[in-house]
Specification:
Blueprint: H1 3-21, H2 27-34, H3 38-50, E1 55-58, E2 62-65, H4 78-93, H5 97-112, H6 116-126, H7 144-153, E3 155-162, E4 168-182, E5 186-193, E6 198-203, E7 207-216, H8 224-235
Antiparallel strand pairs: 1-2, 3-4, 3-7, 4-5, 5-6
Length: 243
């Protein structure tokens, strides 16, 4: 087996992984991802289909895997596992207990599939990484996981909030749009406020109460990139809570 064969097998495996993690991918996106031509991607997709991988093609939209199909558990390379171990220290610094809990559980599963020698290396690496004390700690919260679920399910949130002048803002209905991390404000929820009829930023450590409602909302057409660009043009930096 020559180098080209090895590279192609590696790419075919990676394509299946990408299709499993994304809802829909175009040939152009895959070609850019693997630095090959679109024609090569067409041949790869055909080869995967012939191998029995249930790839669905949506004309003009892209490719996806048949609903319910799953590839065997992914084995992590040493470099991939190392990157996740390094990120663990930054996650802990975030001070959101829900995020720390979920990430710790995920890291445990990742370490479980490593070989003994790799586990020893990851343990050594974990004990040799620290985040400077000069990096200010974020205000603590336990809301990231709850907000994440509401954001992806398009569920309305009812919140009470403490403003910058310590005044308590009574119940307000918001439509979670995005999460934003700022060195100044740390974790912020960007949401459409139904009272103000506009998007606002809410610092997670100033949210006093939060409750997901059964009510759902239509996804906003505005992208996060567009939102941040607008805020940068108006306020120089988007890192300014607007609530």
């Amino acid at each position: 087996m020559n180098d080209n064969d090895v590279k192609r097998i590696s790419r075919l495996t990676a394509i299946v992984t990408q299709l499993q993690t994304k809802r829909l991918l175009t040939a152009t996106q895959l070609a850019d991802r693997f630095t090959v031509s679109i024609r090569t991607i067409y041949r790869d997709i055909k080869a995967l289909e012939q191998a029995g991988i249930p790839i669905l093609t949506y004309e003009g939209k892209g490719y996806t895997l048949m609903e319910g199909y799953r590839v065997p558990p992914v084995m992590f390379t040493e470099s991939e596992a190392s990157a996740l171990v390094i990120a663990e220290q930054l996650i802990i610094k975030s001070q959101d207990t829900s995020l720390i809990k979920e990430y710790t559980a995920a890291i445990s599963k990742i370490k479980a599939v490593l070989h003994s020698q790799e586990k020893e290396k990851m343990e050594l690496l974990s004990n040799r990484i620290a985040v400077s004390q000069m990096v200010p700690a974020a205000g603590s919260s336990d809301l990231l996981t709850l907000i994440q679920h509401a954001l992806t399910a398009f569920k309305v949130l009812e919140i009470t909030y403490r403003s910058t002048d310590q005044a308590v803002i009574p119940e307000r209905l918001v439509e979670p749009f995005a999460l934003y991390y700022s060195l100044q404000e740390k974790w912020l929820l960007i949401a459409y406020c139904r009272l103000r009829k506009d998007f606002r930023m809410f610092r997670l450590d100033r949210i006093l109460t939060i409750k997901p409602l059964e009510a759902v909302f239509e996804p906003h057409k505005l992208t996060l990139g567009q939102y941040l660009k607008e805020k940068k043009e108006k306020f120089v930096t988007p890192d300014i809570p607007l609530s």
